[in-house]
Automatic annotation (TrEMBL):
One Pfam family per UniProt: Hydrolase
CDD domains from the UniProt entry: HAD_dREG-2_like
Gene: Hdhd3
UniProt family annotation: Belongs to the HAD-like hydrolase superfamily.
Domain of life per record: Eukaryota
NCBIfam families (UniProt xref): DREG-2, HAD-SF-IA-v1, HAD-SF-IA-v3
GO cellular component, one term: nucleus
Species of origin: Toxostoma redivivum
Coiled-coil intervals: none
Name by which UniProt lists this protein: Haloacid dehalogenase-like hydrolase domain-containing protein 3
Length: 238
């Protein structure tokens, strides 16, 4: 099937980059460095609860409600530690600011297997490339430090777009930036509703990165599933 694609858009987290260790572990390590003992598992649970509540109360980093993404994240970190028993406000502020910076670093993120090679090959084949990610403004720096930024003509975050996936308007902005019509573009991501289904609803092609044995969720045609990123080239080579 000749897809006649011009533009490939990419999710980042758990598609191209992943955290080197769970959030609870990295938060606990930073607390230890400041002389505080907090259990990683407890912190991980607190973080998931706080992140979920903050995302519902202040969607897309609270941009529509007057928050900055930095303030949004500082609040999440502090509240995660508070919920895990840390009460010292000075310590909380220091932890939050340090962790906010740490999550920009290449020590925190690693490139997924096959990602750099696949991106390089896609560029050699002449595809235009962009990022479409529910991320804050730190993403440019993270991609640069992980040596992936040069693969992309644009990096569109939900913070910059003002809309988060699965909102179709973030894909419309990406298509304008990439100079392509929906049927000339494909999106690659790991999340069924935010990546695969949302891109298809916007009229694009889409591929779902899904390790073998992920039987949860709706059926996706096998030709749209990527067991690894390296499988993409066979699906799109012109």
């Amino acid at each position: 099937a000749m897809l006649r694609l011009r533009l490939l858009t990419w999710d980042v987290k758990d598609t191209l980059l992943r955290l080197r260790q769970p959030v609870g572990q990295s938060y606990a390590a930073e607390a230890r460095a400041q002389g505080l003992q907090v259990q990683p598992e407890a912190l991980g649970r607190s973080f998931r609860e706080v992140y979920g509540a903050q995302s519902r109360r202040f969607p897309n980093y609270g941009l529509g409600q007057g928050l900055s993404s930095r303030q949004w994240w500082l609040d999440v970190v502090k509240q995660s530690f508070r919920l895990s028993g840390v009460q010292d406000e000075a310590a909380l502020t220091k932890l939050a600011e340090k962790l906010y910076r740490d999550y920009c670093s290449s020590h925190t993120w690693e490139v997924l297997p096959g990602a750099a090679e696949t991106l390089g090959r896609c560029r050699q084949l002449g595809f235009r490339m962009g990022v479409v990610s529910n991320f804050d403004s730190r993403l440019e720096v993270i991609l640069s430090r992980c040596n992936l930024r040069h693969h992309f003509e644009f990096v569109l975050t939900s913070e910059a777009a003002g809309f988060a996936k699965p909102d179709g308007r973030i894909f419309e902005q990406a298509l304008r930036l990439g100079g392509a019509r929906p049927e000339q573009a494909a999106h690659i991501g790991d999340d069924y509703s935010r990546d695969y289904r949302a891109a298809r609803a916007a009229g694009m092609h889409s591929f779902l990165l899904q390790a073998a044995g992920h039987g949860d969720g709706p059926e996706v045609p096998p030709e749209h599933v990527l067991p690894t990123l390296s499988h993409l080239l066979a699906r799109i080579e012109k």
